[in-house]
Amino acid sequence: MQTMLHISKSLLILFILALINPSWLPAATEQRIALVIGNGAYSSGPLKNPINDATDMAAMLKKLGFTVTLKKDAKLREMDEAIEAFGNSLKRGGVGLFYYAGHGVQVNGINYLLPIGARINKEADVKYEAVDANKILDEMASANNGLNIVMLDACRDNPFARSFRNAARGLAIVSSAPSGTFVSYSTSPGNVARDGEGRNSPYTQAVLENIAKPGLSINNVFMNVRSKVKRETGQIPWELSSLEIDFYFVIQGSRVNIITNDPSYSTKSDLKTEADELARQKAALEREKQEMAREKQEMERQKALDAEREQLAAERRKLEAERQQLAMAKRPSQPTTGETARDGRFIAYSNGTVLDTSTGLMWAAKDNGSNINWANAKSYCENYRGGGYTNWRMPTQGELAGLYNAAKTYKSECGNNAHLAELIRLTCTTAWASETRGSDVAVFGFHNGVRAWHPQSLDIDYRTLPVRSGQPTTGEIARDGRFIAYNNGTVLDTNTNLMWAAKDNGSNIYWPDAKSYCENYRGGGYTDWRMPTQDELAGLYDRSKSYKSDCGHYVGLTELIHLTCNAPWSTTTRGDQAVYFGFDGGNKRWSGQFGGGLRALPVRSGK
Length: 607
Hints:
Blueprint: H1 2-20, E1 32-38, H2 50-63, E2 67-72, H3 76-90, E3 94-101, E4 104-107, E5 110-113, H4 126-129, E6 131-132, H5 134-143, E7 146-153, E8 181-185, H6 202-210, H7 218-233, E9 238-241, H8 271-330, E10 339-343, E11 346-349, E12 353-356, E13 361-364, H9 374-382, H10 397-401, E14 410-411, E15 417-418, E16 430-437, E17 440-445, E18 450-455, E19 467-469, E20 476-480, E21 483-486, E22 490-493, E23 498-501, H11 511-519, H12 534-540, E24 547-548, E25 554-555, E26 569-574, E27 577-582, E28 587-592, E29 603-605
Parallel strand pairs: 1-2, 1-3, 3-7, 7-8
Antiparallel strand pairs: 4-5, 5-6, 8-9, 10-11, 11-12, 12-13, 13-19, 14-15, 16-17, 17-18, 20-21, 21-22, 22-23, 23-29, 24-25, 26-27, 27-28
Helix pairs in contact: 3-5, 6-7
């Protein structure tokens, strides 16, 4: 009974004190969740303090009862995923706090936080390569958790200002924020904040010194921060608030064990606390050293695995070469299409064809051998299968005239002199041509170089000489499953009948230049090359294959097609965006057509 009375009296005293001074309450009972990001290792405009700032801020927030997620030197996807997870956590209620230290830029009044590895060559790239700061506010609004705090120490110099059309300084003040939100900027709109000469930036150092002082409302904390930063640097931190109640990081009468440069905290009663804190910091430093040792050990293990993987890839290539040699040895002997003779612009091949290099036309090495009428001559040409080709036809008068050369002479089998290169043998000197004019059909005389016309009804008989467009198939040099490589720098995919260039263009170029490169490519003597679709590139990807490209990425495709880096452009576009395909992971991705340069890999249809 006495115990019950004692408890009741105690509760009554607490209730009265709470009515007199609500900030006296002994501890905050709400959930506190924080996401802290520090980015400093930029390839352009690196910063020395954000990692320190984020690390120290995360440690301080943990002491203030926050459940903290800390991200250091985060890339775009890592930042997006962390912000989304942060928003999901806030849906359980409580206080949310987002802190960011690093580069931030404004484009058209919108603030963007720059991740590590952002590829920004012009102002339009920021939209796709950086995090819209409004995303944090959107997540907070969606969570509807009641009270949120945003601290942006992100107004350093824009490292990409020279490539921007309108290089606005600093960040823009957001026009609105969800109810119950407090936003603090390290400096005023349009101005640039200092990174700092010591361990922390001036803004973050001031926040760390004031945030843990008991009994200070959030407005008083940041008034102190503004006063200190303005006095020491001249920059003026700025706040935007839609809070409807006071918030206290530390309520009156509570203690937080911290080390601070504020003289008002250097009392004798704090000495033991400071000693304890130093001991904890020492222990934390020891843990960090152990973690670094583990990371170093893991790095050495990864290097060993990479070396072993490279050795296995080399052994796999050697084994495949031996397998190809064995297969070639077992394969029955086949005739090749090797060159057998040349006469000026003409090249004769062992498969009974002759290439006119000045026109790109391929001729049968000899005519049909006997006189036939025009209709039969046309049919003979279209059904001719010399060299294994199926697209032979009857030549035009102009094409036959292009063979005539008065300086060349040999005697045909019918006794007349034929004036053309001896690599093309005519058994008689008049050949049918494909043109018709009414009921007349065309011929050409190689004994006199004359174009003539004859009535088809007279049933006159002459010789015929088949012709086709294109160059001969060159020799096979290697196979890898469904892929066949030829010595003219082409690789045939027998599954799709697509012919690929054996290697990409060798350097990064923008999308329009890559498209032009593919369309003007003349590998193997072909003229119908083009840029591939994203599905055609995806069809090449094979996760069971792997070799190291020149830029260091491992790519998953046959080694008969050599990529100097992992990502070629495709034809698919959307506005000023274009798709490229990543052979390092088999992913289709979007990039600005004039953003980061990528490779070009030409393709054509058919043999």
